Amino acid sequence: MITLKNAAQLAAMRAAGAALYEVLQGLRERVVPGVTTLALNRWAEEAIRARGAIPSFLGYEGFPASLCTSVDDVVVHGIPSERQAVQEGSLLSLDCGLVLDGWQADSALTVGVGEISPEKERLMRVTEACFFAGARQAVRGHTLGDIGHAVQTLAERCGYGVIRDLTGHGIGREMHEEPAVYNFGLPGHGMRLLPGMTLAIEPMIAMGDWHVDEDDDGWGVRTRDRRPASHYEHTLAIGENGLPELLTLPGYSWKEREDGTDPL
Ligand code: MG
Ligand code: MG
To answer: Which helix (H) or strand (E) holds 91?
Structure first.
């Protein structure tokens, strides 16, 4: 079922999104060579609870942590571990979610640990750009296929693979609601977008081929060719008019991006 949110519900989701933004910014600052992914998870859980929110990943289908930490060839769903200290030159995806007053927020970003290669830097930047290319299609009257097509076109133009096995999703009272938001597709195809829809758009982009394997722990999803991947996600709301509001990136201005002054 697709749920459309009214103004009061969107205000609640905006508050949840702002809290999650703060958590992810705090995490980003704590990514230094040698930090363990378990230490990042502990900090995330405390930061979520300090904001009066609940970690939505913890216990979700049995997931044992509040944060997914996915290093290099792990695309998503890496489990934090005290045995895993992140290494200079790695890519680390941080995916986090929380519930505040009954409303969900879900967001992910990828950071370089210390100095990273130009190839990894480009993959990270293009993945972010793929998100914005897809998100700018999330307007009333467009379709889910328009979003997927925009993500896929940019990724493939840059020579990268689009992970097919995982998708974005609707979000609201539940972390994962309908519809599935594919990162590939055909313009004009799929469900038509309506004001009040809230979606998590999350390109997962591979430097090489898009096929993936699941780790033995039943969670980690890894590129089959073991080349690096990157992940970037925001929760957004489709409005009556114009471009979507990025709920997990408070104060974001599309105009800045169009002017070429966007820091991303
Ligand atoms: Mg996420
Ligand atoms: Mg998500």
So the answer is: strand 91-100
Region at 233 (left for phi over 0; alpha for psi -120 to 50; beta for the rest): beta
Query: Residues 57, 62, 68, 69: what is their CA dihedral angle, to the nearest 10 degrees?
Result: 160
Q: What would the pLDDT profile of 179-189 be if each residue is shown by its tens digit?
A: 999 999 999 99
Among all bound ligands, the one having the nearest atom to the CA of 175 is 2
Establish if 212 belongs to a structural domain: yes
Q: CATH number of the domain that 87 lies in? A: 3.90.230.10
Q: Total structural domains in the chain?
A: 1
Evaluated on CA atoms 238, 241, 247, 253, the torsion sign reads positive
pTM as predicted: 0.97
Residues, beta carbon < 5 Å, ion ligand 1:
95, 106, 108, 233
Cα 43 to middle of ligand 2, angstroms: 20
